[in-house]
């Protein structure tokens, strides 16, 4: 009779467990703590394995019913997807993985019937061998690298097998390049995954590219999650084809946000000509596969950790319906105090900390200006984001808004973050430099309403505690009191008496800074965005003097906001473009400052 099979006391050997639709892996029963007994049992197990042909049967006996149910629940969808692909004779291809084992290929091999699907699996871990196969590279975990892997493996597979089976086979190549958790380190763990495939035999190939951040604490857990994500990508591409919405919907099956974040997906090829990747990025945010999507001034989706690395950030949140001269004035006023002018000097050994007079400042070229729009119901003048509705997202309105802000030369952040401390936490994940949030005094008042923090156990104190730990600054743009006409600034603002002392403390510590460079004539218009919208609906040209010229031209060209053609007057406006060089230039004001 076989003794109970305790394996090595160092690492329990995984057990392959058969169940309906595929296989799953569970840990073996915990070994005895006494090393000699464990070694003796291991020798007995090996001897028995050689003398009997019932190893698989014996293995299954140590698995409890609860373990079986848990395993089936965790991995049934992933295993079924891998088996579905293996059993379809239409698909045949290559899997190439670098950086976190061969976890994607392992799923296809473990469920069986992989010989009909996998022509080759490879991992070129050595840099010299990798360069010989895919070309030299300065960095190995990049979009360019995974694209080179896809092109090389797909070309080799399709050319080699084209005569043999090209008439009735859709070839594919899956590749990933990943940096997983290093032993004893807390490094940023992320990866690029992609698939290049034919939708029909002999057709031109299509490509899906995905970037992910791996959030598990151990390399083993990250490898497991990466394998699941890879299977979802392969199954989605080969099963749903041109239905990009379905591919996105099932992208995180058997995963959750505590383990994996997908912040970019890109579709290209003949069957995806109709796909706007900006809207695909919005779907990732909407489904909470990531916290935000970042677009550069050209409207192209970016990886936050690449774009924000070592950058100071100045962020403005709003609806931007449309972007007006008031938004621009807020940015320029904040920039006047945040950016360094002539005569700035470096403080100490840190070149990112610069002094201008008695205050610290940053260089414009080291700073990214972000305009943020949120998919949550954020208040601005009492209105909600107009490109969302009860039935979902209005795709055209969203794309038009992105294009309008891009013409101004700004980077745009689309997020699902409701509170400012969530924005601060998100930005601090990717940069350790200075962060400034510019907002209007009405929004600042909203921050000090206790009802705003009703769902936090610690209420308003918890909210500001989480905000202040990032050592950011809030630049407050003034407004006119709608009842008295008094100028309200951060310095004379009165909030609810119960939190007035808290406000004064945060103001005194320098977290809240009053913007003192502004155009008071613009303030007299009140809600400028509302005035622009009403003027356009009435068919009067008054709105043109309240928006930058690029926004004016786009509204007229695309007929936005219900625009109808009528006689126009010239409009002027400047923007604090992310594509500009050198120090900030303050635009000419229409009136003197107060």
From TrEMBL:
It comes from Apatococcus fuscideae. Residues 572-594 are annotated as: Disordered. This is TonB-dependent receptor. It comes from the Eukaryota.
């Amino acid at each position: 009779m076989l003794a109970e099979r305790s394996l090595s006391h160092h690492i329990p050997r995984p057990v392959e467990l058969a169940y309906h639709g595929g296989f799953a892996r569970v840990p073996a029963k915990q070994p005895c703590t006494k090393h000699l007994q464990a070694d003796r049992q291991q020798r007995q197990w090996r001897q028995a394995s050689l003398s009997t042909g019932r190893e698989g049967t014996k293995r299954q006996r140590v698995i409890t019913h609860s373990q079986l149910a848990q395993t089936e629940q965790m991995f049934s969808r992933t295993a079924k997807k891998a088996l579905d692909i293996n059993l379809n004779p239409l698909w045949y291809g290559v899997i190439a993985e670098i950086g976190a084992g061969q976890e994607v290929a392992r799923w296809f091999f473990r469920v069986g019937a992989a010989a009909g699907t996998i022509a080759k699996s490879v991992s070129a871990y050595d840099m010299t061998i990798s360069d010989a196969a895919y070309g030299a590279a300065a960095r190995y975990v990049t979009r360019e690298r995974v694209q080179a892997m896809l092109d090389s493996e797909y070309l080799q597979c399709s050319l080699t097998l084209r005569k043999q089976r090209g008439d009735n086979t859709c070839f594919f190549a899956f590749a990933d390049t990943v940096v997983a958790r290093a032993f004893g380190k807390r490094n940023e763990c992320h990866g690029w995954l992609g698939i290049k495939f034919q939708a029909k035999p002999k057709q031109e190939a299509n490509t899906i590219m995905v970037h992910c951040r791996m959030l598990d604490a151990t390399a083993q857990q990250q490898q497991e999650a990466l394998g699941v994500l890879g299977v979802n990508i392969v199954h989605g591409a080969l099963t749903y084809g041109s239905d990009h919405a379905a591919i996105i919907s099932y992208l995180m099956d058997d995963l959750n946000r505590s383990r994996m974040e997908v912040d970019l997906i890109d579709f290209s090829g003949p069957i995806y000509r109709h796909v706007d990747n900006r809207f695909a990025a919005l779907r990732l945010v909407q489904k909470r596969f990531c916290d935000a999507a970042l677009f550069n001034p050209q409207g192209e989706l970016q990886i936050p950790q690449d774009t924000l690395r070592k950058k100071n950030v100045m962020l403005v949140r709003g609806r931007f319906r449309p972007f007006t001269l008031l938004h621009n004035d807020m940015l320029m006023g904040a920039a006047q105090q945040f950016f360094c002018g002539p005569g700035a000097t470096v403080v100490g050994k840190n070149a990112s900390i610069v002094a201008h007079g008695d205050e610290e400042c940053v260089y414009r070229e080291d700073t990214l200006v972000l305009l943020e729009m949120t998919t949550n119901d954020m208040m601005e003048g009492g209105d909600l984001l107009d490109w969302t509705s009860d039935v979902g997202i209005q795709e055209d309105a969203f794309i038009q808004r992105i294009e309008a802000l891009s013409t101004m030369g700004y980077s745009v952040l689309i997020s699902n973050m409701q509170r400012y401390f969530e924005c601060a936490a998100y930005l601090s994940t990717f940069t350790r430099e200075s962060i400034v949030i510019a907002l209007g005094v009405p929004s600042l008042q909203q921050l000090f309403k206790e009802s705003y923090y009703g769902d936090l156990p610690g209420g308003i104190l918890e909210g500001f505690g989480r905000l202040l730990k990032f050592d950011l600054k809030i630049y407050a743009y003034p407004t006119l009191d709608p009842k008295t006409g008094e100028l309200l600034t951060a310095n004379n603002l009165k909030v609810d008496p119960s939190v007035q002392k808290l406000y004064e403390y945060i103001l005194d510590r320098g977290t809240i800074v009053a913007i003192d460079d502004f155009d008071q004539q613009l303030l007299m218009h009140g809600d400028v965005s509302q005035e622009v919208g009403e003027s356009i609906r009435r068919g009067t040209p008054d709105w043109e003097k309240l928006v930058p010229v690029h926004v004016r031209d786009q509204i007229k060209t695309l007929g936005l906001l219900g625009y109808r053609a009528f006689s126009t007057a010239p409009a002027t406006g400047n923007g604090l473009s992310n594509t500009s060089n050198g120090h900030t230039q303050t635009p000419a004001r229409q009136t003197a400052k107060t």
